[in-house]
């Protein structure tokens, strides 16, 4: 079997994919793209050619697939160039920074008969897969509500890249979209409407640094979500799951799912229930910690992409699915800007305020 030839555009998030690729026997990392000093250092470490112009890489390299981890506003252009070269695409989440660009990405990949995988890599996490199984198994009964937090302090150099200070680079679109996708993936619920408030009080940049969101689902359960990327805190997926060695690990939980038979916290997978004959606050809760074998979700995602390129698998995260998550984030942004409740798939913005 011949090696699969891939390239990685972007040496921030893309660096992890590139490192994994050079250690997987049947994947050949042909080249990488980046235009700063860090990209130069990492390309040298990887011992592969560095293109400062990703368009030139796509045009000149013989490839089977491409991994796009560029700033969100560049996703559409990069995918269009790749699709026209008949390259299968793994594009980092969000699929795009606007719904219109996301729709265009899906369309051009279909027109050129290339597979599109969107990089919501948490869906490959063994921990999240286990949580999804627990929720769907009726172990906690009917889901009543969900509480989610992304609260941490990013390092100050993170904000030296100007695109991260703009609307397409804020924590809602960069980080919140992960958590919203987790909510959809784990519960299977359809997010119908949102009401959100956002602030930029920490850094006073044009983009939010904190937000609070109430999400209503078509099926009935409600979810609360608080996000901030400027607060010293352990309550985030990144710091609690220990899936990425870049981050310091904390023994805390960032999600809770509440059901009629019990509740579960994540990532500790601690289950709280009562014995049926001793139900209610007069009795002690039963506490059970469920076990699951750890994995590396991004490595699993890369291996899945390789299977897609070979024709052995269909994308686990399709463009259409990723677009639904983006629509929720866009509704959150619109709600916060307009101070109104927003229907996720509404044709028109409502005029009445809450």
Automatic annotation (TrEMBL):
Regions that span the bilayer: none
Alphabetized InterPro entries for the sequence: Gfo/Idh/MocA-like_OxRdtase_N, Gfo/Idh/MocA_Oxidoreductases, GFO_IDH_MocA-like_dom, NAD(P)-bd_dom_sf
All residue ranges annotated as the GFO/IDH/MocA-like oxidoreductase domain in the record: 130-264
Domain Gfo/Idh/MocA-like oxidoreductase N-terminal: residue ranges: 4-120
Superkingdom field: Bacteria
PANTHER family: BILIVERDIN REDUCTASE A (PTHR43377), BLR3664 PROTEIN (PTHR43377:SF8)
Protein name (record): Dehydrogenase
